[in-house]
Specification:
The chain has 348 residues and is an all-beta fold. The protein has one domain (18-328): YVTN repeat-like/Quinoprotein amine dehydrogenase (Methylamine Dehydrogenase, Chain H). The protein contains no helices and 28 strands. It has strands at residues 31-35, 43-48, 54-58, 63-68, 73-78, 86-91, 97-101, 106-111, 116-121, 129-134, 140-144, 149-154, 159-164, 172-177, 183-187, 192-197, 202-207, 216-220, 226-230, 235-239, 246-250, 259-262, 268-272, 277-282, 287-292, 300-305, 311-315, 320-324. Strand 2 (43-48) and strand 3 form a beta hairpin.
Length: 348
């Protein structure tokens, strides 16, 4: 059980000027959007590859897509299984793109080098795969969102190993690997923060609060802190696994967060669909900063930070991807010039 050590902060940065928000010059835009060919393709999860290419899934058109930020070129690849219901993706150190197929009950792999797909059926039918993680050692981890099943997949042997999550019907999502190789994830229905240690093959976890929070997450910062959201309390939360200390920061008023990621400076990025905006949280200053998207009511869904620190997102209405270039944040540029004439005789 968490020890309730809470530190709350409420800061709201308006989209244009407060808290160092950038004003871009005439030929620069803080947020750029790129419409997709099919307006109702429903792009969902997005990820940035080590080479800077941006990969994302299109749920309704059953496609995997790649966007090149340098050339602005878009490539789409039809997933072999018809209506596979692709839900999440991850990119391994070799650049292979892994994704889960809920309707096909499969793990998919795409090799950008040869354009080939491979699909691996999960050993238990109706696993309901909803999340995937590519670990640093090459092992692929899968969470069944409402089956109580966690799986590892070894690409070398093409073998799955199943593990039963102790809490049944816990609604497990959002796996992330810490510095010790443990796999952390949220159980939304069970109201728990949980980890699995592949070395000992044991689960451990903590109840988030005495009442249901519908938590979501997760991110790991450079010091090993685990970040997640308490949706009911509207609090961004950091859990220290060593001390079990909990720090909570109240988010600006909103109607629901969809996804989160962390950048190389430990800033936490959030995407809020109904509010149509991105949010950055700086743990050093406890300041939240908001960025409204250009297209009204665009329903952003997923978020990913690329190797250059740019923040990418998907949006559904109409289908598009977009990017916020954080290198422009804090650059206030203006052509405004003010001339002041001192009163005659002032300096006599």
């Amino acid at each position: 059980m968490f020890r309730p050590v809470a530190l709350c902060a409420f800061f709201l940065a308006v989209t244009t000027l407060f808290y160092g928000q950038a004003i871009a010059s005439e030929d620069e835009e803080l947020i750029r959007e790129y419409p997709l060919p099919v307006k109702n393709s429903y792009p969902n999860n997005i990820a940035a590859a080590p080479d800077g290419k941006i990969w994302f899934l299109q749920f309704r058109t059953n496609k995997l897509a790649k966007f090149d930020p340098d050339t602005k070129g878009l490539e789409e690849f039809e997933i072999p299984s018809t209506k596979s219901d692709p839900l999440d993706l991850a990119i391994d150190s070799k650049g292979h793109v892994w994704f889960v197929e809920q309707d096909s009950n499969a793990l998919g792999r795409f090799n950008p080098a040869n354009g080939k797909f491979d699909e691996f059926l999960l050993p238990t039918w109706d696993t309901k795969p909803g999340s995937v993680l590519a670990a640093k050692n090459g092992v692929i981890w899968i969470l069944g969102w409402n089956s109580g099943i966690m799986l590892s997949f070894d690409p070398a042997t093409k073998k799955f190993v199943e593990y039963n999550i102790p809490t049944k019907n816990g609604s497990a999502f959002n796996p992330i690997e810490d510095h010790e190789g443990r796999i952390w994830f949220i159980q939304r229905a069970a109201n728990k923060l949980t980890y699995f240690d592949p070395k000992t093959r044991r689960f451990d976890g903590w109840t988030i609060s005495d009442y249901v929070q519908s938590p979501m997450g997760t991110c790991i910062d450079s010091k090993g802190g685990v970040w997640y959201l308490r949706m009911v309390d509207n609090a961004l939360t950091r859990f220290d696994p060593k001390t079990e200390e909990v720090l909570s920061f109240t988010l600006p008023k909103n109607k629901g967060t969809q996804d989160m990621d962390i950048d190389s400076h430990d800033n936490i990025w959030l995407v809020q669909s109904t509010d149509n905006r991105l949010i950055r949280f700086d743990p050093k200053t406890s300041v939240f900063q908001t960025f409204n998207l250009k297209t009204a009511n665009s329903k952003p869904k997923s978020i990913a930070v690329d190797p250059k620190g740019r923040v990418w997102f998907t949006a559904a209405k109409p289908a598009k991807i977009g990017v916020l270039d954080i290198s422009l944040i804090g650059q206030i540029k203006s052509k405004l010039r003010v001339k002041i004439k001192a009163p005659e005789g002032l300096f006599k």
